[in-house]
UniProtKB/TrEMBL annotation, chains A, B:
Signal peptide location: none
Protein name in the entry: ROK family protein
SUPFAM superfamilies tied to this protein: Actin-like ATPase domain
Alphabetical list of Gene3D superfamilies matching this protein: 3.30.420.40
Amino acid sequence: MSQTEFVVGIDLGGSNIRAAVVSQQGEIKAWAQAPIEAARGVEQGIQRIQNLIRQVMEQAGIRQIAGIGFGSTGPIDRKRGLIQNPYTLPGWENVDIRTPLSRAFDAPLIMENDADAAALGEAWLGSGKGTSRFALVTVGTGVGSAFILGGQIYRGMDGEHPEAGHQVLDPNGPPCYCGARGCLESLASGPAIAESARRLIQQYPNSSLARLHQSGQIIEATHVTEAARQGDEFAQKIIREAGCYLGLGLVNLILFYLPECIALGGGVMKNYDLFFPHIQQVLRQHDVVVPTRRVRLVPASLGNKAGVLGAARAIWLELKG
Amino acid sequence: MSQTEFVVGIDLGGSNIRAAVVSQQGEIKAWAQAPIEAARGVEQGIQRIQNLIRQVMEQAGIRQIAGIGFGSTGPIDRKRGLIQNPYTLPGWENVDIRTPLSRAFDAPLIMENDADAAALGEAWLGSGKGTSRFALVTVGTGVGSAFILGGQIYRGMDGEHPEAGHQVLDPNGPPCYCGARGCLESLASGPAIAESARRLIQQYPNSSLARLHQSGQIIEATHVTEAARQGDEFAQKIIREAGCYLGLGLVNLILFYLPECIALGGGVMKNYDLFFPHIQQVLRQHDVVVPTRRVRLVPASLGNKAGVLGAARAIWLELKG
């Protein structure tokens, strides 16, 4: 094994690949991102990843790394180091990431689900620092979750990772590909918020969203949050409903995990302040059999660095035990 | 510390107190139970517990014990060894159990919530034996839960224990004292099943339950399970609905914990076979983002011995590390 004091953390999403050179203390020596353009094929994709790693190593002025932590949009086969995600990365099924990258950089590679990596990063250096039980819930195109217990990623049977975003909250809710009706993702993700707005818009002809809709614009979640921020009552109602469902989802999370801290991340949570009062109200209402009031609820704090830092932490944990 | 090879495990419920002398391998050398009659007061109650411990020690032919594991209906203050349960044990608030029993038997005492103790017993010697992640869900007057991770009771912040029975499953469901509408307990506990039957009985005048109701009998959950077993369609419908909600509750549990095995215990689950097909169907329907199909679902197997064995295990873990 190399004696270098740095590892590379990778964060592979559906659109972008990010890489950072990270010390054992969590210092970022170099950082870069580039589009992955997954549809151009696996071979070119792996080449892009390698180029990005070389780029950050050069920026950091190092010629060797002790290991690679690779956080990827799932599903993945963690043990074998495979990406199996034709949904987000078209054509990427059974893609062996470990073999080519380990060979190219003469370094061990550990792979983690991206939600797990982001949570590990937040628990190490961000919103969950110093906690023994920390949950991250990401609200964006989907709703993801991860749980960090004693500084380690919580894994279920066969290494499976939790999916609190698909918990059932309302059996009369919208259908989801997960098999449920009314799972959290179907009620409070970005697309769910947009869909709610589109479904109810006829009833609120005076809303600014209705005017946008009439102008031919397809309503997205960002339109709803913008309108809510500008005082549009219909948009505020949509946010309130999603916020209440998020609150119920967090009540359930607390009933199972009883964490000291929950952080909310993901694209939709850039508007954390809009959702927070509704979530908080639901948590207070359910503060009876478990102390929901004592759980610290915060926005995730590492932004687009959480994934690379968590991936780096994962390989450091592997290397140093 | 005493050099004896036995401990005493206690299981204190709302009606009965059970005690067993248990070896480090889980062998029960003596067992007894007696009514607690909590309303007669704390002092007499503690006396009854002491008498029962002396009785089982005599039966086992031992004069000393290495420790006492005390499982109790909650809420309890685990660290201070207090019972704080005026709900189930009238008048028992801030009752110090540790001091008098430790003194009387010259032995350390560890206290656990009864659901945690039962789960620890099942994981040690029963339905969860050999698993790394084991959940017990008890369905009776309430719905309780516990999670055993790596052979130890999973505890949340400040030692709090999970309460999966109060997870929200249907925000349009019945109100519960926990602050929720439509928590699992409000939808699938014994009283919830009875309440469903009483609410809908007018619509099913040909049901055997309707005839029972007309005769002046107050319908309880046991009447519903009996009628279902005899082919009554209305009763079967009630069981199916409760079974489906239990299934949804277990789907959520799997999404958070991903256990190898879930055991169902408690009074209502004496009719496990009636509920199982409905639970199973819901689990299969949700086998998409997590492998619900791979989770082993079984009835709890230690019956009324789970609590004393788990309490014994808890003190053995404390003594031997």
